[in-house]
Amino acid sequence: MQSRFIGLWGVVLSCVLVAGCATGPSHPALAGAPLPELIPVRDFVASRQSTGGYRVSPDGQHIAWFGTDGVVPAIWIQSIDGGDAKAFRIRARSIRFSADSRWLGITADPTGDENTRIYAGPVEGPGTDLRELMPAPRSVAHFSEAVEGSGDFIVTSNQRDKKVFDLYRVNPAGGAPVLLATNPGNVSWWGVDVSGQLRVRARLQGDQTLLESPGAEPGTWQVVTQRSRWETLNLFGLHDQGRKAWALSNRGRDKLALVRLDLTNGAEELVYASPDVDLDNVTLSRRTREPLVAYSMPGYPARKVFDPALDARLSALAGYQPAEVLVTSADHTDRVLTVAVATDRGTRNYLLRDGQEPKFLGENRLSLISKDLAPTEPITFTARDGLPMHGYLTLPQGVVQQQRLPMVLLVHGGPWARDRWGDGATSRAMQQFLANRGYAVLQVNYRGSSGYGRAHMEKAMGEFAGRMHDDLVDGVRWAVERGVADPQRVAIYGASYGGYSALVGATFTPEVFACAVGVVGVTDIARLLEAAPPYWELGLPWWHRYVGNPAVPEDRARMDAKSPLYRAQHAQKPILIMHGVNDPRVKLEQSEWMVAALRKAGKDVQYVTFTGDGHGNQKWTNNLTMYRKTEDFLAQCLGGRTSGFDYYQLGAWAF
Fold this sequence. Notes:
- There is one protein chain.
- The protein is of the alpha+beta class.
- It contains 14 helices and 35 strands.
- α13 (620-638) crosses α14 (648-654).
């Protein structure tokens, strides 16, 4: 231990003597360019000033948010005008108030294994003790609804059967959870209204989803409507004593639209749709249960505000620049709102109260350093088979002639997800980090991505390592033909499915990419599904539809043919593989196998693991390592710049 400590101080001293060990760019397009200030890695991963996730209590008297207490992640809560703030020290995933505003519910994943825990802490008083509401070990629990007129929550848990979720009512003040409904083994969703009443459930039966309401006799159910299992009907906001619900639906249409669903007969009333893309989400009024805002992302963010007065207030916050203006919470009168204004360079949060000027609450890490960040623009191109493609391009600041730049193709995960323009994108910090290091960053919403309709998604069936990858390569060719990218200096980077794509790039099309970075990436598709978490059980037919069933020999042969593990010998360029040790989805063995195969084949591969994290890092110490490894690796491969040793690495070692 002492020798390690002395070694670290030796690194620190030597870095101080050479101006922090930072290395300037070597790529011709960047050398000599007036690039912006090199932002320290720590500012992307570990800012104590960063806050977000603001929520107002239903009674409008308190506000809660994500922040830090000293150097520890925490959830803060205080009276709405301040003066009595206290912190619950916990690394949380989400928060919500009880309907009576007496309790704050907190969801957390302490070890990254996605066995999410739910807690509650008192809103009033100085106490910061948290009570776990569903304490069964090795189980997953989620909040479903806050019950009006009480402090109770409706929650789901798989503590009885790890494959499915039962429904419970819990009281944060104490007492055992009360079982409301037992899952017969094929219920994928429970619909509860704000009174705590179970009004509807979604039950899978073959290739159909049956929407059912409770029957006249206890324990019986009657079918309201049914749909193809492959259609989407996301219900929320049950109202009218459980007779109606809002939903995002693509039944009978290509794009997800906002509908009002009649839960007595299954009829849909179309309320609002975008002609170009799926609706992302909808914010409801707490007072009327009617829609306030519908959001979509055709390129830049778009919103439909149903109340003209609210529309004016939100537009004033956005100003004249593109922005995603999200109403994140409201009190029960809708007169007190929290609003997040997200751009391509961070998120700022505000409190809106009737008759008062907007109050700035706080901002996240990117917003704190936004002056040195780069703008992102929507782009379109056509894939080789004629399919329209959408994506985003970020060019480094300070490069006068933005041509033949080193470029990183940043591939989103999912694959049934999408890249976005605003700060809600999961890879936004990495995207801006790469641009600050001097790289053009290309993001492509390849076929299979969500957001562009069912047809765009379904064109991915059978196309892992096929046309889905062609779309990415076509994006690179578009950037090269446009003069943006240096064809000899393009890297591919991604996490989860994006990590799989990076390794496909390294082993299927090594001539396109100068290097690859795969994070928590799939390397053997068949064994991914065979080792899936038990609660994936009801979702596995979706995977089978897109990639095959490993239990079917013909399918398995195709899955193996599309798996990078079995093409390790074809890799030609350097590869960096990183993985969270506790990953329950893409288990660590997927990377272990790939690294072993690459090393056996004599290939250039670096390997990093993250203790205490899983499918994506929550710990700032692990993110610091990931970003530092990435910038050094890409500097060698593409010729961008690197910051060298960051003194927070000493703190990471201590933690």
